[in-house]
Amino acid sequence: MNAKRPIRNLALIGFMGTGKSSVGRLVADLLHFTFLDTDHVIEARAGKPISDIFAQDGEPAFRKWESRIVEELTLRDKTVISTGGGLPAYEENLISLKTHALVVCLWASAETIYERVRGHNHRPLLEEPDPLAKIRSLLAVREPYYRQADVLVNAEIRSIREIATQVIHQFHMAQAAHR
Ligand code: S3P
Predict the structure, then answer these.
(1) For ligand 1, what atom is nearest to the CA of residue 66?
(2) pTM here?
(3) Which 8-state DSSP code applies to residue 53?
(4) What is the sign of the dihedral through the CA atoms of 25, 31, 34 and 39?
(5) Helix axes 131-146, 110-117, angle to 10 degrees
(6) From first to last of its 179 residues, what are the pLDDT tens digits of the chain?
(7) Ligand 1 mutation pick, 59, 125, 135, 139, max ligand atoms within 8 A of CB
């Protein structure tokens, strides 16, 4: 990490179902930061759910929304940002997040993710005959990007509170080191 790097915000990255939103909300509460979920911002701006954006406009249109929001995030302060699972797989998004935020990746196995997301129907990328196989292949493609996070946190079997506590600890250490 660059010694002069400003760390004003905290960005959570990781695959769908790793708990970014739940952990992010709790971390924001505990730090007295604002919570922002990139998926929610996109839905509000587009005026429709993500599944409709994918179905009507296509995935590239959704990814454009994501990079637009990522650019705007550079102006934020004291914000916990929960990102969509595919956002850091576009390297310029990751590079941009690192200019103002500590980037923390929540990590879980494909099997755990599958157990958590099955039965939910708002994730267009998992609307597949074999969602577990899709999770495995997407995870394999995205792993090199997720690994570029400043901190990797195991979100496999621990409670939201335990994970949030660890994230906050890492955030305080990073802020102290880069002050
Ligand atoms: C996506 C993850 C979703 C959402 C969209 C695409 C992905 O967000 O951005 O469905 O590419 O992994 P969550 O990770 O919050 O489910």
Answers:
(1) 9
(2) 0.96
(3) I
(4) negative
(5) 120
(6) 555 789 999 999 999 999 999 999 999 999 999 999 999 999 999 999 999 999 999 999 999 999 999 999 999 999 999 999 999 999 999 999 999 999 999 999 999 999 999 888 788 898 888 999 999 999 999 999 999 999 999 999 789 999 999 999 999 999 999 87
(7) 125
